[in-house]
């Protein structure tokens, strides 16, 4: 059964965050709130966690996983960013955007798009994932908590606990966090491409 953590939406309790991060380091898969909707998260090198996310969401190998980063310095360790892209992303973060970029060798191979060798990265504007990633000391491997055959992501902690009680080890609840997933911008080609229109304003990339 999943452990349920009620976390303050503005000042997450450090002891609770530390407990959740310890479980992530021990291989746990967690459901947590972001600035767009809930996400599933595990440690970067957790092969079993990656496989479980694929199973829960029924994903194929072309799905772009996302590395949730604490800040731009951390993000730049895992993706290659030229000056123009740097300025565009810097102006939009933190925020409800996911950026697809060429990965560096720091990213495990099983996370890469099989043809493009790209990965998603983002810096959320929400204190809970920021606290988790700061405590973890590395990006959190994540994917939107959108179940197969459902049009909208799950948004209520209690419902996630009910639905995924035997699929995840922990559910963090800090109140409402919205129903729209991130806006996804692919910077791996010659021009930025809006792959998904979501919570972040896409007009700045058009």
From TrEMBL:
GO molecular function term, any single one: L-threonylcarbamoyladenylate synthase
Coiled coil: none
InterPro entries named in the record: DHBP_synth_RibB-like_a/b_dom, Sua5-like_dom, SUA5_domain
Keywords tagged on the record: Nucleotidyltransferase, Transferase
Source organism superkingdom: Bacteria
SUPFAM superfamilies hit by this protein: YrdC/RibB
Matching PROSITE patterns: YRDC
Gene3D superfamilies in UniProt: DHBP synthase
EC number per UniProt: 2.7.7.87
Domain YrdC-like: 14-200
EC supergroup of this enzyme: transferase
PANTHER family, per the entry: DHBP SYNTHASE RIBB-LIKE ALPHA/BETA DOMAIN-CONTAINING PROTEIN, THREONYLCARBAMOYL-AMP SYNTHASE
UniProt-listed NCBIfam families: L-threonylcarbamoyladenylate synthase
Name assigned to this protein: L-threonylcarbamoyladenylate synthase
Originating species: Streptomyces bacillaris
Source organism phylogeny: Bacteria, Bacillati, Actinomycetota, Actinomycetes, Kitasatosporales
């Amino acid at each position: 059964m999943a452990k349920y953590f009620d976390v303050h939406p503005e000042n997450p309790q450090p002891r609770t965050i530390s407990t959740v991060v310890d479980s992530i380091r021990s291989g746990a898969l967690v459901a947590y709130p972001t600035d767009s909707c809930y996400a599933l998260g595990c440690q970067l090198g957790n092969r079993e966690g990656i496989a479980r996310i694929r199973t829960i969401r029924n994903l194929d190998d072309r799905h772009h996983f996302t590395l949730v980063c604490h800040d731009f310095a951390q993000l730049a360790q895992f993706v290659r960013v030229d000056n123009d892209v740097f300025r565009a992303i810097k102006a939009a973060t933190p925020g409800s955007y996911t950026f697809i970029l060429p990965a560096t060798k720091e990213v495990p191979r099983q996370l890469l798009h099989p043809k493009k060798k790209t990965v998603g990265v983002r810096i959320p504007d929400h204190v809970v994932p920021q606290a988790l990633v700061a405590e973890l000391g590395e990006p959190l491997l994540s994917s939107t908590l959108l179940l197969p055959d459902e049009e909208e992501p799950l948004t209520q902690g209690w419902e996630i606990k009910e639905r995924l009680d035997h699929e995840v080890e922990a559910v963090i609840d800090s109140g409402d966090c919205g129903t729209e997933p991130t806006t996804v911008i692919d910077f791996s080609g010659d021009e930025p491409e809006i792959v998904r229109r979501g919570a972040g304003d896409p007009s700045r990339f058009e």
